[in-house]
Design a protein that fits this description.
The chain contains five helices and two strands; from the N terminus they run αααββαα. The protein is mainly alpha-helical. The chain has a domain of about 70 residues: Arc Repressor Mutant, subunit A (Orthogonal Bundle), CATH 1.10.10. A hairpin with a 3-residue loop joins strand 1 and strand 2. The radius of gyration is 18 Å and the shape is elongated.
């Protein structure tokens, strides 16, 4: 698992870690019962304060995607994959809504956007014909 924190992102570092872990769970890279990295180890790896990692781990536990076990660490729960997929889909849809709003603000109509989305879903670039 390769987590990164972008110090220039508008998203807080702890939220970036949560998103990275949820993505890893949703992809199956982390599965129920897998242990998350230790707080200090991950903090050193991604160059953040250990409190930032602690906050991310706490947020993941509140969601039910992980659980802390005293003295053992933090582990992915059996419900983790379903929670991760649902949460990441919601985030993706929010990003999609923002992109649609930006495209509309740039003057693109809904038909053009639907055509572009259909092409993207087929793996084509805009304007490409198969």
């Amino acid at each position: 698992m390769n987590l990164r924190v972008d110090p220039h992102s508008l998203m807080p570092p702890s939220h970036q870690l949560v998103a990275g872990i949820l993505d890893a769970i949703a992809r199956g890279e982390l599965t129920p019962g897998d242990r998350l990295p230790a707080v200090r180890t991950l903090a050193a790896d991604v160059l953040v304060n250990p409190n930032t990692v602690t906050k991310a781990w706490r947020d993941l536990e509140r969601m039910g995607a992980t659980e802390g076990r005293n003295g053992s660490g933090v582990f992915v729960t059996p419900a983790g994959p379903a929670i991760a997929r649902k949460t990441r889909l919601a985030a993706t849809l929010a990003d999609l809504r923002a992109a649609i709003a930006a495209a509309r603000a740039a003057g693109h109509d809904d038909k053009t956007l639907k055509d572009a989305l259909a092409q993207a879903l087929r793996g084509e670039t805009v304007g490409e014909k198969r």
